[in-house]
Design a protein that fits this description.
The structure is a homodimer. Chain A is an all-alpha fold. The first copy, chain A, is 72% helix and 0% strand. The interface between A and B is medium-sized, with 35 and 35 residues. The first copy, chain A, binds a DNA duplex through helix 3.
Chain lengths: 192, 192
DNA sequence: AATTTACACTAGCGCTTGCTTGGTTGCCCC
DNA sequence: GGGGCAACCAAGCAAGCGCTAGTGTAAATT
């Protein structure tokens, strides 16, 4: 009946869907709205995606995969001090929020709308990303750069960062690098 | 046609609606589901609320108002040191998450589903709550207990705390007091 | 030249949605 | 002992929903 590969066309449609999902929310976004945004009729949409759920999964997968790539690249190209690695992760996280904002907002807000199969698949991607964070935080703890409970510290840091999607304005005066600096300074208690 | 006062009956219905909104999300929760949970028929629902939107607004208002009350009470009954006040705010925040969890989860996830009028009204409540936080953080900054940009620090702290709704398990080994301690320790760099 | 593939279209089915209407119940108070 | 009223109900409307069926067509493949 239809295809489910990752053609370039499908990637572009996914990007457009992400924007609508952010504007309206997944449930309020109808397949007719999606089709109109994509410049096709609603029936044609199901040539590219099996159903509406699959569009949501595609959006979230795309964003998470990019975050993982950027974080890995950032870790590989920075100094090997715990502080530099903390900052690299924070900056990478915030930069992803800039370039893939829509996808990440959708991932944060609409995660629960995924059906169980899609969630099972995507949870592994997310775990891989969070594992990077916990490794970096472990190093910082071992080096005495920060203190406290391993689990709680990583949750607090991820919370502070993820929350930025609700207030961070890329057009404002602060760069992702500024924010990363300030966050690391806050938890390591060194002047920014 | 119908009433919009704050009768005890309406309060109870609001509480039940909050739970369904958390389970299903606002958009997926139908008026028929709400009515069934409340033990009435869907038509009767519109005797208590003008429309579905008003139920959402009632849920969020209830939760935010309680958070404000608890935070104020907590500030009044704690020591007047910056550190004690920081901890009091953090603990109050987490305790509210325990007692009013449903309402707060709805406030975080479904805020954008509010229509503009309701949002205008509720945003003042939220601002009042956040103003409490910023005052306490200002005191901590002035006292040299923490360092950094006033705006960023308060956003990071609120982010870390608000994010707890996504992972905190009240049945687990950690109490709200534990978490508050650990968070304050993390940003003031004292051993937990 | 024949066939397949990719992508789009029109039309509409079957169902659910939020909300309305018009009327009934049972309790309270004068 | 009857008027008033909050609370409820049965029934259903108009609109919108996700998705399917069947068809057209231009390009790629055989």
């Amino acid at each position: 009946m239809n295809v489910m590969n990752d053609s370039p066309r499908r990637k572009e449609l996914t990007r457009q869907a992400a924007q609508l999902f952010v504007q309206e929310g997944f449930d309020r976004t109808t397949v007719r709205m999606l089709a109109q945004e994509m410049g096709i009729k609603s029936g044609s949409l199901f040539h590219h995606f099996r159903d509406k759920q699959e569009i949501l999964a595609a959006v979230i997968e795309e964003g998470t995969q990019n975050a993982l790539l950027i974080a890995r690249a950032s870790l590989e190209s920075c100094d090997h001090t715990p502080e530099a690695r903390l900052q690299a992760m924070a900056r990478a996280h915030l930069e992803t929020l800039l370039t893939d904002r829509n996808a990440h907002v959708v991932a944060l807000y609409e995660w629960r709308r995924l059906d169980p199969e899609a969630r099972d698949h995507l949870i592994h991607l997310r775990d891989a990303y969070e594992a990077l964070w916990e490794a970096v935080i472990d190093e910082a703890l071992d080096a005495g750069l920060i203190h406290g409970d391993r689990f709680l510290v990583s949750r607090f840091v991820m919370g502070a960062l993820n929350w930025t999607v609700r207030w961070y304005d890329p057009a404002g005066p602060r760069s992702p690098d500024d924010l990363a600096h300030e966050l690391v300074a806050m938890i390591t208690q060194r002047p920014a």
